[in-house]
Amino acid sequence: MAWAVPEHKPEEVNGAGKALQKMEFPVVTSEGFKALAVINNWRSAHAYPLNTFQITLRHRARRIERKVIIAQRAKRLDSIHRKLVGKPTMRMTQMQDIAGCRAVFSRLPQVYKLVQAYKTGQFDHKFRNEKDYILHPKADGYRSFHLVYEYVGTVATKAYNGLRVEVQIRTQYQHAWATAVEAVGIFTRQALKSNQGDQDWLRFFALMSSAIAAMEGTPCVPGTPSRKLELVNELIALANKLRARDMLRAYNTTLDTLGSAKDAKYFIVNLDPDAGRVTVRRYKAKESAEANAQYTQLESQIPDDSRMQVVLVSVADISALKRAYPNYFLDTALFARLVDRIIKGDFPDPIPHLAIPDAT
Questions:
Q1: Adjacent-strand bridge partners of 103
Q2: Signal sequence span per UniProt (predicted)?
Q3: Please, are residues 309 and 328 in contact by the beta-carbon 8 Å criterion?
Q4: Biggest alpha carbon distance in the chain?
Q5: Using one digit for the tens of pLDDT, what is the confidence trace for 96-112?
Q6: What angle do CA 203, 207, 213 make, to 5 degrees?
Q7: Which of 84, 177, 247, 347 is buried most, with the most CB atoms less than 10 Å from its CB?
Q8: d(Cα 239, Cα 32) in Å, to the nearest integer?
């Protein structure tokens, strides 16, 4: 199999990142295309390490829960752009989540069992850092456990040494929250995922995260009520103001698939919310480089003011794709059910936020 390898020096990659910071879409200049070519190679080169990490993740996670959802993805160009703009001093080669794989468990104890398996089991790659956003949730309500490693290869794969892969481990409820934030952000044309946009929506999701945390027995989000009645009353007021439940139930899309379904490993998902259509392009494992090139081309053609989304992922099949990435199918059904349950007060009293400095 012909996997992409890094073809550019770190300073060239970082220079392309600086160019991306100032880039407008769709890309039409020769300088822009040159920078995208460098970024595409850098991102594509992570495919081999990412595949290696995903195999380990799948093996370890399924020892804990047979029906765990496993997926991997390359970071979207617009997400890379937002991160570089938001952190002007960051270099492309410093970005830890260019490549990421994820395990989604049914319950919280499984999350920490897998974390422990990584910490105590044999792993040939270099540990970089961890972030427990479950015990220490972000201010916007995001919760998940992150582990970051650097790839360490053999003589045959040393070209990938130093490339970083992020492993995300979360529960189905945490996953439903995160995907609903993305789906609502797409429809409202707001970067809610980056904690930007309408303050009512941001507050709504922070409150929902605290209620879900109470259901899972973990600390609530900083700045949200630790009394259930107060939390529910505020949530009801916001849900009514935003018509949140109607919006969460209104999403619907049609699905088009391109390419052979047999032995498909990589999927490019292209969401056009205005047309209510999702197009999925399927690629075999040996077509990794082709998939990455097509991915970058599609991204570069999306105007800055468009609501279209495109992502390159790897999952077992189309069914697993919908479970792992419901936001790209505008599927917020589980989150909508959680909203109904929480508004009825069907959850325990919240656990106050632990104001403990995050040592990681």
A1: 70, 169
A2: none
A3: yes
A4: 61
A5: 999 999 999 999 999 99
A6: 145
A7: 177
A8: 43
